[in-house]
């Protein structure tokens, strides 16, 4: 008879918990558990026990403790304990000659800022260089925010300069803090510059940043002269949507919240917003980058010939990616290159541009095949007679040709190519998405009928008008742009007739109320009649 075994495998409930025999590893494991559970007191108890047991501590131990202490440094109930142990832990770390890394310095900077000592926080950041360690934006934040809160403007600006020297870029929270500091200390020119930094950094602002802007404009009045002609030139040069030359107009600002119509017209003041393009410098840089890469990868003589041809034929307003359109939805048995689809796009763009033919980029192998087909020959010859076709040579990549032509001529590009492949990654352009939004025309064919998706009528970015008004998009949870609120900031006489008559306030509505709502001046008691002297400019750009 079989006897039961007394050596059965243990069940999960009977297994012993895994432990680390190494005391240093066990200490780190338990510290990390405290960090995950946000248990500062337990972590401090572990630290005290480790000291009693002469446990050898390393950088990871200290960083975990410092992180926990810095996390609780702003908690009213734990602040004193966090600060006391945080600095004690850091001093212990330095006494053991363990070099801090970026995480260590970020934590001690946060502890210093929580104590109100922005100077020490900034001093710690600058010492990172002694350890050949580069700071990150978060490393500077404690000192920057501390100086901003204490209205120590020159110190905050010094931190910003150091951030810039390190090649780091400010983001919305830091820019908003500097903007508020400048507003609170009545530095109008600084406010203007930070508004433009916001414009370059974000597409829309948070509610918190919006409140900072409202408070400034509701309190501020200034008296500025301007040269209208130079404003328009600056806006054209910048690609539309801003001039960057200073405040324009005189008198108090009118601040409202409202919506923008699908055609880009502000419901509050009637100003037409721009579809913003990249500026002249960026365009030239972009064109040179594309040409440089193309000349590396294409036969130089072929691409230079195209460049020379384009210089002599520079009046096109639209470029068409012929292969992309001809092969659209042709992945079926009888599918091939659709001449009819391409012709529909050519004729539609011809009509939309006031009877100007677009330029179609197509590989010569594809063109030869079409000419050899009797049913297509006549249409292709018609294209050639109208100057529609440029045929790229054997072994070439069409993408370089249509991209270069579009950038160089600053015109529209008809293609569904999302431009995500390695060619466009090589460009590495920070303004590539802005350029695509302004220039790309997408298309569909529904039951053979062409439908074009033109670039948007306006760009959802902070905009500065030639008359000095500002329009600031605010973060929106809905995907429906008509529901997005904008901050409309104008001066009397600086907007369209709708603003003068107030008709939009009566007729334009959103779901929960009127389109435009005037911001209350919460700071009347502290506003004065000071004026700020600056220069300003702006120019309209048609979408």
TrEMBL record:
UniProt GO BP: tRNA 5'-leader removal
Cofactor(s) the record lists: Mg(2+)
PROP1-like PPR domain location: 15-222
EC number, as in UniProt: 3.1.26.5
Keyword set, alphabetical order: Hydrolase, Magnesium, Manganese, Metal-binding, Nuclease, Repeat, tRNA processing, Zinc
Domain PRORP: 261-488
Signal peptide: none
Domain of life the protein comes from: Eukaryota
Catalytic EC class: hydrolase
Catalytic activity line of the entry: Endonucleolytic cleavage of RNA, removing 5'-extranucleotides from tRNA precursor
Listed GO MF terms: metal ion binding; ribonuclease P activity
Compositional bias ranges of the Basic and acidic residues kind: 521-531
Keyword Hydrolase: yes
Disordered: region residues: 1-22, 521-543
PANTHER family: PROTEINACEOUS RNASE P 2, PTHR13547
Membership in a protein family: Belongs to the PPR family. P subfamily.
Protein name in the entry: ribonuclease P
Species of the source: Gossypium lobatum
């Amino acid at each position: 008879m079989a006897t039961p075994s007394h050596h059965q495998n243990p069940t999960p409930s009977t297994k012993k918990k895994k432990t680390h025999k190494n005391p240093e590893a066990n200490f780190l494991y338990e510290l990390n558990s405290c960090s995950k559970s946000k248990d500062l007191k337990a972590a401090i108890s572990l630290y005290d026990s480790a000291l009693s047991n002469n446990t050898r501590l390393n950088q990871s131990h200290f960083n975990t403790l410092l992180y926990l202490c810095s996390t609780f440094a702003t908690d009213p109930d734990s602040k004193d304990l966090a600060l006391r142990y945080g600095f004690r832990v850091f001093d212990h770390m330095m006494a053991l000659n363990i070099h801090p890394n970026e995480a260590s310095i970020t934590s001690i900077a946060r502890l210093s800022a929580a104590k109100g000592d922005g100077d020490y926080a900034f001093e710690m950041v600058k010492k990172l260089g002694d350890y050949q360690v580069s700071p990150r934006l978060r490393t500077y934040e404690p000192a920057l925010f501390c100086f901003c809160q204490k209205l120590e403007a020159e110190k905050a600006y010094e931190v910003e300069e150091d951030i810039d020297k390190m090649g780091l870029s400010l983001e919305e929270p830091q820019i908003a803090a500097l903007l508020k500091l400048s507003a609170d200390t009545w530095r109008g020119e600084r406010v203007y510059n930070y508004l433009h930094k916001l414009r370059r950094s974000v597409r829309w602002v948070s509610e918190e940043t919006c409140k900072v802007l409202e408070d400034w404009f509701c309190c501020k009045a200034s008296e500025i002269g301007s040269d209208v002609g130079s404003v328009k030139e600056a806006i054209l040069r910048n690609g539309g949507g801003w001039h960057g030359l200073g405040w324009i107009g005189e008198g108090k600002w009118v601040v409202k919240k409202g919506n923008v119509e699908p055609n880009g017209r502000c419901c509050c003041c009637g100003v037409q917003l721009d579809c913003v393009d990249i500026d002249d410098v960026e365009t030239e840089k972009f064109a040179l980058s594309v040409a440089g890469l193309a000349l590396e990868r294409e036969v130089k003589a072929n691409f230079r010939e195209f460049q020379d041809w384009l210089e002599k034929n520079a009046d096109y307003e639209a470029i068409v990616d012929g292969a992309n359109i001809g092969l659209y939805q042709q992945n079926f048995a009888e599918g091939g290159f659709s001449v009819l689809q391409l012709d529909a796009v050519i004729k539609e763009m011809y009509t939309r541009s006031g009877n100007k033919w677009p330029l179609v980029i197509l590989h010569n192998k594809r063109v030869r095949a079409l000419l050899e087909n009797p049913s297509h020959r006549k249409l292709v010859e018609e294209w050639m007679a109208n100057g529609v076709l440029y045929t790229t040579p054997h072994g070439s990549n069409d993408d370089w040709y249509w991209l270069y032509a579009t950038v160089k001529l600053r015109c529209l590009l008809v293609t569904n190519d999302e431009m995500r492949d390695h060619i466009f990654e090589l460009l590495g352009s920070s303004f590539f998405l802005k350029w695509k939004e302004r220039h790309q025309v997408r298309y569909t064919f529904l039951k053979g009928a062409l439908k074009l998706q033109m670039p948007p009528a306006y760009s959802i970015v902070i905009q500065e008008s030639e008359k000095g008004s500002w329009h600031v998009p605010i973060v929106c949870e809905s995907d429906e742009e008509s529901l997005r609120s904008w901050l409309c900031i104008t001066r009397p006489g600086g907007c369209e007739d709708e603003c003068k008559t107030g008709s939009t306030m009566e007729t334009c509505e959103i779901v929960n109320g009127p389109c435009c709502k005037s911001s209350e001046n919460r700071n009347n008691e502290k506003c004065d009649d000071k004026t700020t002297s600056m220069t300003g400019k702006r120019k309209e750009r048609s979408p």
